[in-house]
Amino acid sequence: LQVSASGGTPQPLTALDSANGEVAHVSPEILPDGKAFVFTAWRGNGDQIVVQHFETGERRVLVQDGSSAHYVATGHLVYVREGTLLAVPFDLASLEVTGAPVPFIEGVMQGSSSRHAAFSISRSGSLVYVSGDSQAERTLVWVDRQGAVEPLPAPLHGYDDPRLSPDGQRLAVQIQGGDNDVWIYDIPRNTLTRLTFEGLNGYPLWTPDGERVTFSSIRGGTQDLFWIPADGSGTAERLTTSEYGQYPLSWSPDGHTLVYYELHPTSGGDLWLLPFEGEHKPQPFLQTPFHERSAVFSPDGKWLAYSSDESGRYEIYVRPFAGGGGKWQISTESGTEPVWARNGRELFYRNGDQLMAVDITTKLSFSAGTPRLLFEGQYYTNRGTIRSRADYDITSDGQRFLMIQEGGTDSEATQINVVLNWFEELKQRVPTN
């Protein structure tokens, strides 16, 4: 989007090309003449660096399989591909790449989900970057109610969005990397099996009977909802088709309704319902000017807990699923990522690094107790993402939490590297006409 420097209403500047597999436009940079800008088109089958004119909206691809482009005064585009810093000659007048890319530095840290690369270049020619593996390494851990940690024997991976199966014996989890996919971890047998293979896949969610895993997938267009047999015996079946990104959040206990998150360009993040009885027609549950997300059904199916920024910061709220009856604010000092206890008598959420618990009563009417701290720790959470589902789960007895702990090279990046007078090397190795 673009907005006047003096303020005003933001206006759309680019539009996703779903036919080209585009998911998001990120890392924009205005070129020196102010007439055009470059950005990264985040795609399910390889990112692209694109240039677009401000006035005409005309755009074209400059670089295949690249992201985080910066123009420098030497007449080059500098960008990253799979953790390698490259430079290519670039004609500012014609807005065209005029030569072949040349690699300079390997091992530049790059976000597996954001595509943003950790480097910058000053006008005087200094290069600064952070070294690190672009593939996140994280550990699955059990954490009890007192905060004691017990690692699972699963190997290090870029784990995200863990979900325990209804019987507690398996874990559906997204693994981030070059190919984002859903995997099944068999806890007693300590085996990790890949479940999805086509497109970019994530946000797994078990059906109440444990027979299927619902997930979100990019397959040549926007992020839609699918499901697949959990034992890998069948192929994925599409549940929705939309021009906006969708993410599964929670199943009603009877399996009749799926609540999901949809990102809309005007109303922001909304909560929708997909019924599995009757016409199977999606319908909005909460569609406001605010961002509602992270919705989860209560174990009896009568309530929905969710987070919203309607107060100016994210707090946890509960509403009746059937509608009417108002709403209750659960958190008091900010809250995200709600998860119900399986007995319905507690609601958990996060406030920064704190895991909070609230006693819930629903027998005669709904009431919530005062939030209390269970434990505090730096466990992984994908706070930067738009949907912010809970990055943890709880066992059926409510005594242990399945959480993700950062590990490996991502958490050990403590050094910033500076290369002075880098332009001299750049001009020597990548001459321009």
Polypeptide structure, described:
The chain is mainly β and 433 residues long. It has one helix spanning 422-429, and strands spanning 22-30, 36-43, 48-53, 59-64, 67-72, 76-81, 84-91, 96-97, 102-105, 119-121, 127-130, 137-144, 149-151, 158-164, 170-176, 181-186, 191-194, 200-206, 212-218, 223-229, 237-238, 246-251, 257-264, 268-275, 283-286, 292-297, 303-308, 315-320, 328-329, 336-340, 346-351, 354-361, 367-368, 372-376, 393-394, 400-407, 416-419. The strands form 9 sheets. Strands 5, 6, 7, 8 and 9 form a 5-stranded antiparallel sheet that branches. A hairpin with a 5-residue loop joins β30 and β31 (346-351). It is globular and about 75 Å long.
Can you tag this structure with a few keywords?
48% strand
Radius of gyration: 23 Å
- Mean pLDDT across all residues, rounded? 90
| Count, helices | 1
Main sheet properties: 5 strands, antiparallel
Low-confidence stretches: none
DSSP strand count:
37
Q: Which structural class is indicated by helix and strand composition?
A: mainly beta
Distance between the termini: 34 Å
| Inertia-based shape | globular
Query: What percentage of residues falls in helices of 4 or more residues?
Result: under 10%
Strand content: over 45%
